[in-house]
Amino acid sequence: MKNVQSTTPSTTPSTTPAAAGSRRYNELKQMLLNRRRELQAQVQDKMRDVRATGEVTKLAEVFDAGESSEADIQEDIELALIQMKSETLSRVDDALTRLEQGTYGNCFDCGEEIAEKRLRALPFAVRCKDCEEARETAEQRERHLAARRGASSLFFDM
Ligand SMILES: [Zn+2]
Fold it and tell me: How far is the CA of 119 from the centre of ligand 1 (A)?
């Protein structure tokens, strides 16, 4: 690859979070790409399973209709799992897009960088630990208040 940076000298704002090429950017990108590869492998594995189960189902139908409906349920579960994984996969893709745009990995509330450790555990975290905890505390308080207001709050829910 050619170095195209020479055409834009020192115009890259150093304040940009996870700027392309920075250590943090590379770490996060690697983390997301790994996750993506894992998910893709899992989806492909499951797809193979379902296809294999499909064959078995057809065979079972010949012998016992009862057996096959159980296999159908199993197949539905597998398909739901594939769907879930696919959705996570597209969230990883979203995160990669945001990373390219420099908006991934920063706290939604305070704008600070979310710790890499936290992102590894929760790649779709949108808040730093402090803000998330503050939010949870606020929500808990809100729930407490709502419970104390009791039945009257039901009207507001409608
Ligand atoms: Zn924050």
Answer: 13
